[in-house]
Amino acid sequence: MAKLKLIDIAANLTDGMFKGIYNGKQYHVSDIAEVLKRAWEAGVERIIVTGGSLKESKEALAIAETDGRLFCTVGVHPTRCKEFEESGNPEHYFQELVSLAKEGVQRGKVVAIGECGLDYDRLQFCPADVQKQYFEKQFELADALRLPMFLHMRAAGKDFCDIIEQNRHRFISGVAHSFTGCAEDRDQLLKFDNLFIGINGCSLKTVENLQVLAGIPLERMMIETDAPYCEIRSTHAGARYIKSMWSSKKKEKYDPGCTVKNRNEPCFVRQVLEVVAGQRGIEDVGILAKTLYANTCRVFFPHDLDTMAGVVLGDDCNI
């Protein structure tokens, strides 16, 4: 496996699947150590662990503190924004987020506010008006701490972009992760010069997805897994470009030396890179990897841009 330098900007390592729990049933022991070992061997140099609620953000920070290559976000996912009001004291809930984010920044672990945004595909979990209210609220965090935004947009393009426009002065940069929108959604996002677009397996399912992907400038793209979700399956349009493979077994026959069938994990970010390269006709995946690595550092690790060995900003990186 050729040596590459990769960053997975989105891994839900707090998810029960990494503790061996699927749909409430225990199938195997916690295996985060094995998952991370495969990631490091695949060339993943950093992973951002996603926080989607106050509780989850605390767990994400705890995980991030176990390894120097792990970082995290702090924020509330749109489908969980009812937690602000269900807490009985929305302002206190928000101030706890503020305290946690400050603590994480001081420890060098919190690199973004999120996952926050709008999700109109799952309004059964949280109505649109509540989502919008607390999406806007979280810009206060980004503004106060001068952190980028880690964003979620599902079937809410117009409202999402309207809120971004109204608050663009309150955040320095960000990424709309796990992008699955249409060409119009893509073009609306690209109008914000401080926004990048995150690509994972969910972005690469159909021929239409790949056509939309073709219109994203490489200098505005990042890659991710969104593990344990959004894996690239053999039936997906982008699967034909995959070159890197791992042995897998069903969760019922768990083997620590294998990936779990249908459970995504950070090592598979390499496959996302390969699909992007294949779809764009890029033969040297190393050049593409450098570009995407530099994009990610520019947003989440700006202090490392000039010091990271192997990351060269220049024409060969399409920057």
From TrEMBL:
Gene3D superfamilies: Metal-dependent hydrolases (3.20.20.140)
Annotated PANTHER family: DEOXYRIBONUCLEASE TATDN1, TATD FAMILY DEOXYRIBONUCLEASE
Positions that bind a divalent metal cation 1: E115, D226
CDD domains the UniProt entry points to: TatD_DNAse
Keywords: Hydrolase, Metal-binding, Nuclease
Name this polypeptide is given: TatD related DNase
Top-level taxon of the source organism: Eukaryota
InterPro entries: Metal_Hydrolase, TatD-like, TatD-type_Hydrolase
Binding-site residues, a divalent metal cation 2: H152, H177
Family matches, as Pfam families: TatD_DNase
Sequence similarity: Belongs to the metallo-dependent hydrolases superfamily. TatD-type hydrolase family.
